[in-house]
Amino acid sequence: MRVIVKLEALEDCDYEYEYHHYLQGLIYNLIKDSEYSYLHDKKGYKFFCFSNIFPAMDLKKGDKRTLVVSSPDDLFIKRLREVFLKNKRSNKKAKVGRMSFMIDNISLLESRLNSRDLNLITGTPIVVRMQKDRCKEYGIKLEKDYDYVYWRKEYPLSAFIKQIEDNLIKKYIEFYNKTPNSDVFPLIQMLTFRKQISTRLHFEEGTQIVIGTTWEFHFRGLSNDQIGFLEFGIDAGFGEMNSRGFGFMNVVK
After folding, report:
1. Residue 160: how many CA atoms within 13 Å on its side-chain side?
2. CA–CA dist 205, 167 (Å, integer)
3. What would be the CATH architecture of the domain defined by 2-109?
4. Is the predicted pLDDT of residue 229 greater than 90, yes or no?
5. Which residues on adjacent β-strands are paired with residue 119?
6. Per-residue pLDDT tens for 164-204?
């Protein structure tokens, strides 16, 4: 499920491209008094993802923007909606770095895939990290003795697909406490590379450059089990660092 938040800029402002920790902090603040407050300190998968604030361009006062938060946990999304609505009624502004907004409208959207043939596109880059032992399996030679590397366009596509599918399986097992049906895989059939993007992230211990990639995924003749698994995947997010806003997926209309 998704919550779609329509925003209105309160002032002229440069767009905040390093928005990730600000938006993550906004979400944590929204759920701090709910049963989901534990997510802030939870290690591992947090089962939510979010878009950037789009369109991504400098703001003029009164400009309209949109934020979308997704999760396979419908109650989590409904809790977010409740707090967004409360903040809207009290005219509480939403601040994302140097950008400030009033909340204009909030709506919910079920993530239902109604076709066996569909395309998915990345709303935000997919991040895939590969441990050095997996790099050996994939035939990737590391220039230095790194603990892990980010998948890059010069690495084998098969490694990217394997990491994506394995990551989705792990999330599915943790969320549902069961394994997906065996006929779900292989899942990823065709995909089109768009571009590679470097993003600077801010952590308590400093900053880090993260490498992500954008794609269009093409699916044909999906089974019912594959459709159900993909519905989970597009709400949980593809790849890693979903709770920092990476791997946010959209269905191409």
Report:
1. 23
2. 26
3. 2-Layer Sandwich (3.30)
4. yes
5. 218
6. 999 999 999 999 999 999 899 999 999 999 999 999 998 77
Cα–Cα distance for residue pair 112/228, rounded to 1 Å: 9
| Six-digit token string for 27 | 């979400």
Q: What order of strands is seen across the sheet that includes strand 64-70? A: 49-50, 64-70, 2-9, 99-109, 94-96
Residue range(s) occupied by CATH 3.30.70.1890 in the chain:
2-109
160, amino acid identity: F
Computed over every residue of the chain, the mean pLDDT equals 96
On whether the pTM is more than 0.70, the answer is yes
The boundaries of every CATH 3.30.70.1900 domain in the chain are 118-251
Q: Residues 65, 53: contact at Cβ < 8 Å? A: yes
Among candidate residues 122, 142, 130, the one with its CA nearest the CA of residue 195: 122
Fold of the domain spanning 118-251 = Alpha-Beta Plaits (3.30.70)
Q: Which class for 49: exposed (0-12), middle (13-18), buried (19 or more C-beta within 10 A)?
A: buried
Contact predicate 94/100, CB 8 Å: yes
